[in-house]
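User: I've been trying to design a sequence by hand for this structure and keep getting stuck. Would you show me what you'd pick, starting by listing the structure so we're on the same page?

Assistant: Good idea, let's start from the same input. This is the structure you sent:
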């Protein structure tokens, strides 16, 4: 321990709005300093000199204004008593209680720190025997958790120690639940990723244009392994066979007529088509996308005329239909002059 020097207490802030509390804090620190350094065992002269050396210049100036009875200025306890009366006399009990009642639990503050702060504030409020009861009230009103506040209000014969225990238990349970939830989410994410890598196909319904537009789309395959320019396997060992060749249908360069988009657009489409595309995906070895495309407005449909009561009615053949559908104009056309009655 040779060479070790205990730091002196912080000076007393005489301009502190709560001078009474500031003095109480300084007095406690100075008492500990005296005990740790052995100064308490010295004479009054050394103790007074030490006090005035660490208390700060503002407090020394205040000391110089004190009026002592003859001989008391050399007695340590009398000097301490003068400072006590000077600082404590400026305490405003109403203000102290106001500060106590305004104290709420701060963000991130645990219950132990909150209660410690309340007890420190209560010391200067002169609550007497009601101190613990009023601290309990402030704990219930000041905690930030609304559900926990309701639980405390429902508890019968609630004491300060019991309330602190309930709040500690709730805080520990909340922390454990957060930890468990976090681990569960990580396990679920890992399991989902492993399932995608298992080789089983995953199906996704999408709706996208059947014929992509743009010059860059011609260089990409609509199906995995099929060239959109020549219709053969892709990728090629060398240049695409259609490179520099002219289409026999649209007369444009760099593609064959069998994969010509202009020709495919001009061909009739079925009422509903289902296209299956196999796509590359780093999370799955086999993944397919199915799309359902409605027929185009220019598609050719099979039409026939049906004789109904001597009137030819045009109709569209749909082998997949389960009911026959007609507009309300057709029966009026067939039964002109004969009013329709409910059946």
């Amino acid at each position: 321990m040779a060479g070790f020097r205990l730091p002196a207490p912080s000076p007393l802030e005489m301009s502190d709005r709560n001078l009474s509390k500031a003095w109480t804090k300084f007095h406690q620190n100075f008492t500990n300093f005296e005990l740790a350094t052995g100064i308490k065992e010295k004479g009054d002269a050394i103790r007074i000199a030490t006090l005035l050396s660490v208390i700060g210049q503002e407090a020394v100036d205040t000391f110089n204004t004190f009026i002592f009875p003859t001989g008391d200025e050399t007695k340590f306890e009398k000097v301490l008593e003068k400072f006590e009366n000077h600082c404590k006399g400026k305490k405003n009990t109403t203000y102290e209680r106001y500060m106590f009642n305004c104290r709420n639990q701060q963000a991130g503050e645990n219950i132990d720190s909150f209660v410690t702060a309340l007890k420190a504030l209560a010391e200067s409020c002169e609550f007497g025997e009601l101190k613990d009861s009023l601290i309990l009230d402030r704990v219930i009103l000041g905690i930030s958790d609304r559900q926990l506040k309701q639980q405390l209000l429902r508890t019968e014969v609630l004491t300060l120690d019991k309330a602190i225990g309930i709040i500690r238990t709730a805080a520990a349970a909340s922390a454990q639940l957060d930890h468990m939830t976090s681990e569960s989410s990580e396990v679920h994410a890992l399991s989902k990723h492993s399932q995608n890598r298992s080789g089983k196909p995953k199906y996704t319904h999408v709706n996208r244009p059947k014929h992509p537009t743009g010059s860059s789309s011609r260089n990409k395959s609509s199906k995995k392994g099929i060239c959109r320019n020549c219709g053969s396997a892709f990728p090629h060992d060398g240049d695409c066979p259609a490179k520099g060749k002219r289409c026999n249908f649209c007369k444009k360069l760099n593609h064959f007529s069998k994969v010509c988009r202009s020709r495919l657009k001009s061909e009739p489409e079925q009422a509903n088509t289902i296209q299956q595309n196999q796509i590359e995906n780093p999370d799955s070895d086999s993944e397919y996308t199915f799309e359902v495309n409605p027929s185009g407005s220019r598609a050719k449909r099979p039409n026939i005329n049906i004789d109904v009561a001597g009137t030819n009615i045009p109709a569209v053949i749909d082998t997949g239909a389960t009911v026959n559908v007609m507009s309300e104009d057709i029966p009026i056309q067939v039964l002109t002059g004969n009013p329709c009655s409910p059946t």
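That's my pick for every position. To get oriented when you compare it with your attempt: Residues 201-223, 269-292 have pLDDT under 50 and may be disordered. Residues 255 and 307 are 48 Å apart (CA to CA).
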